[in-house]
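Handout, section B. The chain below has 169 residues.
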Amino acid sequence: MDYGSLFQDRARERDLDNFLVEELHASKAFQAWLLARLSPAFRPPDAAEIRLEKSPPRLQDSRQTDVRVGWFDDASILRACVLIESKVTADFRSGQAEAYASELREYRALLGETAACAVLIAPASRLGTLVHNGAFDATIAVEDIIGSLEKRRAEGLSKQNLTRDYRLK
């Protein structure tokens, strides 16, 4: 089955953003899977609380990031972050990729070189057409996410893979 076509025909960017927020919030396994794809550009702090934001404002302009994952210390100070841009069918708007690069530079100046990164998530067929001139540290195909979820499902869900104590039915 061509999951890329299925995804593009039935989902919008905000659907992908909502999925990412929910899965990153609920699943340690998905968090680990995603973080493994960001190494060596990003190294999260060992002891920190992860918080997720959908469409937070950027540091330097009035634009928004699709999803921001933040690592906070006990005093609620941001110690690391990942900026996620999702693309399904649309191209980058004028200056959008450059705005991510600028935002990333500001976070790295504030937090450290490996404490911030930006990732682009899109169907595999779109990743090759989205010109961003290195604004993103990593790209992840939607089909790879689907594959990781299918593998987890085949292995069976377990409570230890959840970030919260959800009841499995």
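Note. Residues 164-169 have pLDDT under 50 and may be disordered. Compare this with the example in section A.
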